[in-house]
Amino acid sequence: MKRLLTCSMILLCGLPLSCQAVTTGEPIPACEWGFTETVHEEIKVVSVTAPKSTLVGSAEDFANVCKPTDSHELLFKNSLVKTHQAVFTFDSIYPLEDVVIAGYVGDRAKTVETVSVDVSLDGVDFDRVAVAVALENGSGTIDLSGRSAIAVRLVFPAAIGETHALQDVAFHLGEGFIVREAIDWSDAFLRYSGWTGADGIFSFNLKGDDAIGATDPITAFVFSDTFVGTVDANTLFRKNSVMINNSVGYFTGGENIADALSFGYRTGAGAAQSAFLPDAYVGFTARNLLDSDGLSSYFDADATLGNEANGTMWRTARTAADHVDIDFGASVELGRLVVWNYNENPDYGASRIRVLTSDDGDAWSTKGDFDLPKASGQDGQAAAASIPLSGSARYVRILILDGYDATTVGLGKLLFEDADGEPLFGSATASSTDPAVLANELSARLWLQDGIVLGESLYLFPLLVKDDGSLFKVTRVGMIKAPIVDDEIDFEHAEYLPSPLQSRTPEGGLLYYGAGVMDHSSVDGYVYVYGYLDLDGRHLTVARVLPEDIEDWTAWRYYDGTGWSKDPNDSAPLLEGVSPELSVTRIESGLFAGKYLLVAMEGTTSGNVAYSVGDTPTGPFSDFTTLYQTKESTYLRGAFTYNAKMHAHLSTPGRYLVSYNVNTTMLSALNDARIYHPRFLWIIETKRPA
User: What letter would DSSP give residue 188?
Assistant: First the structure.
């Protein structure tokens, strides 16, 4: 026999409660407890508490899965409320098949006649899943239908002067996902010198196989805003830190994750600098002519143009041969050219242009000369001209014949359509460009989205971000093509390509692509690029392209709900509530074999790491199911979490590695190194019985 000193709490509501020596049953002999994560197995309870009641008996013995079921009962008395609330906590989140309650068989207390069941993903907030279930002689099995929980609360009536008892409570594993914190991964990214934290994270197998269970991967990470400096190992405070806008990292494999991590970024004049630079996307470059920034809607001849030219229009000092060349990458059937004139200072607009076409970039054919009216200089400027075109060509040249100013000339925007009225996409270069970078262009930086390894190159889809008052604004999505040299990303020699992957739709929505990329080429030949539409919520969208055509924007197609369109604005909303970083992964085996697992932070910053299942890469996708409720907001100042995603090639069948990011609303809290580095989870599929 052994004696334990027990009580519900030493202090409750500021008042001391008396504890009592309680005689328990015989000591429980040691036993082997094998848990194989198989459906129907009993789940080990790590603690039992009753925050409103006095417990009589050993909660530790009661929770022991090896105890005899006819001893070590737990008694509940003296509740401060009208119910007893027994809270059972597990070591991880489990899908629960059922809870089995054994009725008390002694004479020191009453059996429990009815019980309600609450479940919790974080041990704090509970949801009721069963209400006042009647028990026969205190016993019963309550179906929990696979509801996930790290804690379960059994609630049953309490009366003054009465004691109730539970003989035994057992929880059984259901079908679904076990969620465990991947502490070794999370702790590995808490660094003390050099790279000391970052926002945003995507991973790539530099050998190109990003499927689940990839063999011998060489993993590269890309990060966005990054701290470089030192961290005090005792206080975990950052010291001498600077923030750069992006960085890269590498994981070479093995069990010691921290030692297998390394990081990279530029250095110059003894200071850390971003790995990828925004220079190609800022200024008065000709690339501005073909993107959506500044237009009321993109790929729309009826769109209107704003009157801020900085970073949205093209201009240059006047010469006799000013021109802009458009390269479509391959010969296309031309239908129409729509031109918006320069609209910040209307005097800088072109007054007369000549349009020429070419198949090879050497021999040019004139399509005609056209007058352009001066713009108004007001926000909401309509297009200056709609010019019919015909025939096929790879190149179009717009030669500036005259302008309204003797020293400077420019254009606002260009829209090309094919013979069927569908948008055409190309890259624009100019004979010369005003090199000035002004105002908020000086704050431009690249936020790195997802990408894909194709051959010896890593393709990324960066967001160009600029300050916008006290906030920031995403102004375009680009494409980076970075060589892979000696199993590392050669960011020093990266190419920065334009793209049409950001748009403002005619309905007023903002469309962005690059939030997630899935290589599906081994199944149907395509790479699927996921994005989101911000319009009355944040909705999943998807495009696809053959790997060999990834740089050819005319070859991209956008899912419109029934088929594939050339126009990004036709992108259909597939699922509401996604985050701006996510993953979609084909599952080859197990519970969701042949389906597509979307992992995201539901509602962007809710803290709910969730999944949805699609029948195809385009859906339909199920409603979100919450996997995990993040905890960082409960102990870090101003903390919030977002951008959950799976890292497929670091996963194995049925065991998936998922990350999310931690940030803060309080600038002063960023000196805490626990903020601004990724956290990781293992999402483990339960096994079916043999």
Answer: H
Token digits for 532?
């989101």
Using only the alpha carbons of the chain, give its radius of gyration.
Answer: 31
Residue 426: Cβ within 10 Å count: 22
Query: How far is 262 from 252, CA to CA, in rounded Å?
Result: 9
Query: Residue 230: which of 199, 270, 190, 273 has the closest Cα?
Result: 190
Residue 644 clears pLDDT 90, i.e. is over it: yes
Which conformational region is residue 169 in: left (phi greater than 0), alpha (psi within -120 to 50 degrees), or beta?
beta
Q: What is the identity of the amino acid at 206? A: L
What is the mean predicted confidence (pLDDT) over 531-547? 98
Q: Phi then psi for 679, rounded to 5 degrees?
A: -110, 155
Q: Is residue 23 very low, low, confident or very high in pLDDT (cuts 50, 70, 90)?
A: very low
Rounded to whole angstroms, the Cα distance separating 33 from 3 reads 25
Q: What is the H or E stretch that residue 534 is in? A: strand 526-534
CB 690 within 8 A of CB 637: no
pTM for the model stands at 0.93
Pairing relationship of beta strands 408-418 and 323-341 according to DSSP bridges: antiparallel
Residues 6+ apart with CB under 8 A from 582: 515, 516, 530, 540, 598, 599, 600, 643, 644, 645
What is the number of other CB atoms lying within 10 angstroms of the CB of residue 379?
13
| Tokens at 414, concatenated | 């260009």
Distance CA 112, CA 134 (A): 9
Per-residue pLDDT band for 269 (boundaries 50, 70, 90) equals confident
Question: Which two structure tokens, joined as six digits, stand for 608?
Answer: 């709910």
What is the rounded CA–CA span in Å between residue 512 and residue 596? 21
Tell me: the pLDDT tens digits for 604-633? 999 999 999 999 999 999 999 999 999 999
Q: Of 678, 680, 665, which Cα lies nearest the Cα of 196? A: 678
Residues 112 and 101: their CA atoms lie apart, in Å, by: 10
Which of 405, 370, 401 lies closest to 385, judged by CA?
370
Helix (H) or strand (E) holding 67: none
Cβ distance 656 to 683 under 8 Å? yes
* Beta-carbon contacts of residue 268 (< 8 Å; ≥ 6 apart): none
pLDDT digits over 222-256, tens only?
A: 999 999 999 999 999 999 999 999 999 999 999 99
Taking residue 447's Cβ as centre, other Cβ atoms within 10 Å add up to: 22
3 state DSSP class of 185: helix
Decide if 399 contacts 323 (C-beta within 8 A): yes
Name the DSSP letter for residue 307. Answer: S
In DSSP notation, 488-508 reads EE-GGG-EEE----EEE-TTS
